[in-house]
Amino acid sequence: QVQLVESGGGLVQAGGSLRLSCAASGSIFSINAMGWYRQAPGKQRELVAGITSGGSTNYADSVKGRFTISRDNAKNTVYLQMNSLKPEDTAVYYCNALGTPVVAVTDEYEYWGQGTQVTVSS
Question: What does DSSP assign to residue 88?
Fold first, then answer.
């Protein structure tokens, strides 16, 4: 019953900040890469930021310099600090993780959170 639970979304004004959190829980053996995706109405889901278990990060060009992804491996939690938010950042943000469950230690599975809405006004 591995689950990812996001929190921290909301409504902010342009130029404001939000911090998203995603905690993985359940019968997980290990979490490998984690990341944040977003999907706006009428658009495809896109990768916003990703982070490996070793801490290497990558960002979409549209958020470079504004967003920062980090993780706490001990807590299986990933964060997304979003600064200088723009109206075009408005979307549902989804947490994603690649992990190995204890019931299938030879396999890697992809997990998704339920999504948290971020709305940037103006």
Answer: G
At 74, is the secondary structure helix, strand, or coil?
helix
pLDDT tens for residues 6-63? 999 999 999 999 999 999 998 888 888 999 999 999 999 999 999 998 899 999 999 9
Handedness of CA 108, 20, 54, 57 (dihedral sign): positive
Distance CA 99, CA 9 (A): 24
Three-state secondary structure along 44-92? CCEEEEEECCCCCEEECHHHCCCEEEEEEHHHCEEEEEECCCCHHHCEE
β 67-72/77-82 pair status: antiparallel
Q: Which single residue is written with the structure tokens 């900040």? A: 17
